[in-house]
Design brief:
Blueprint lengths: L27 E7 L3 H12 L7 E6 L6 H6 L6 E6 L7 H9 L6 E4 L10 H9 L20 H6 L4 H4 L9
Parallel strand pairs: 1-2, 1-4, 2-3
């Protein structure tokens, strides 16, 4: 299994990474921290089901929710490689719960996704394009707010157009 080499780029200009041959063996896990708001988590999971990349894991990291997050996670176990980690709530646990989940990751790449974000279908693919070319990159994205209430089934099936429902003109990652 070939892994991408690190890349040192003069002036922090990493565009030259795109000239490298990609390594298709790079694996990924998406970490989703959550505190309550299971309804929003449904859409996050639905967006992950619709990804163009299909071989990745998901760890939902529960920061001591009062809601039954396990019930929400269980709804998609047949469509995603899902795990749930949980810690007791102490009021300031977001970073700690992210670290708890990250410690469980065995893949090459960890992609963090907030518990109120719906990833576009190519979100993970677009991250992995970079990670498959250099082993030492940090990839970030942007987010847009939606002007709509979204049914998770439409997101998971790919019939909901995130771009058309976004509140402004920036790219949503599709």
């Amino acid at each position: 299994m070939r892994r991408p080499e690190p890349l040192i780029a003069p002036g922090n200009d990493y565009r030259s990474a795109m000239d490298r041959e990609p390594c298709d063996d790079v694996t990924a896990t998406v970490v989703v921290p959550v505190y309550n708001r299971g309804v929003l988590l449904e859409n996050v999971r639905a967006g992950l089901v619709a990804q163009t990349v299909t071989d990745f894991g998901v760890i939902v990291a529960d920061d001591g929710s009062d809601e039954d997050i396990a019930e929400v996670v269980d709804k998609y176990r047949d469509r995603l490689d899902l795990r749930l980690v949980r810690q007791e709530r102490d009021g300031f646990g977001l970073a700690r719960v992210r670290n708890l989940a990250a410690a469980e990751v065995t893949s090459d790449v960890v992609a963090f996704l907030d518990g109120d974000c719906i990833p576009g279908p190519s979100w993970l693919h677009r991250h992995l394009v970079w990670h498959r070319r250099a082993s030492n990159l940090v990839v970030t994205g942007s987010r847009r707010h939606l002007d709509a209430v979204v049914a998770p089934e439409r997101v998971a099936s790919g019939t909901f157009d995130l771009s058309a429902s976004a509140a402004d003109e920036r790219d949503v990652g599709d």
